[in-house]
Amino acid sequence: MVMHVPAEAHGDERGALLAFLDEARGGIRRTVLGLTGEQASSRPSASELSLAGLVKHVAEVEQSWVARAKGKDPAVTRDESNWHECFVLVGEETVASQLAHWDQVKAETEEFIRSAPDMNETFALPEAPWFPKERVSLRWLLLRLISEVDRHAGHADIIRESLDGKTAFELIDETESGS
């Protein structure tokens, strides 16, 4: 898990953007360290958000954006009838299974971005009020993903601290020390 992005961040634009995305992912992944499935699925604040739900959501969002950039349909189609399920574990889903899924999504994202001929390559998004109407570039896609994951990492920090008092700083220390 990346704790911080060094100034030289992999030497090129793609590497820098992927490193910042990985740093944001780490911000969320750290918040579930040492928790039981029950703790990770709990909602200790007025919000409906849980750590388990945030892990699932960001993995699903990343997969869907990259699938669209590839000209494919997302693995999971969401609409008003099932939107709530992207923030909760359902059926046999666990935090561990969602983290493993996110690892696969990460690998697919990185392979796709590194293999693209040009960061200026554009793609169209489907009609929806939350998508830009114009074509967007792969650069825009990575910036969108960084923004999305970073925003939810802040939510995750608050939820984790509400659960057991651990802050991001303590979780980083634990990760670095191997505790």
From TrEMBL:
Domain of life where this protein originates: Bacteria
Pfam family, one: MST
Protein name: DinB family protein
Naturally occurring in which organism (per UniProt): Streptomyces luteolus
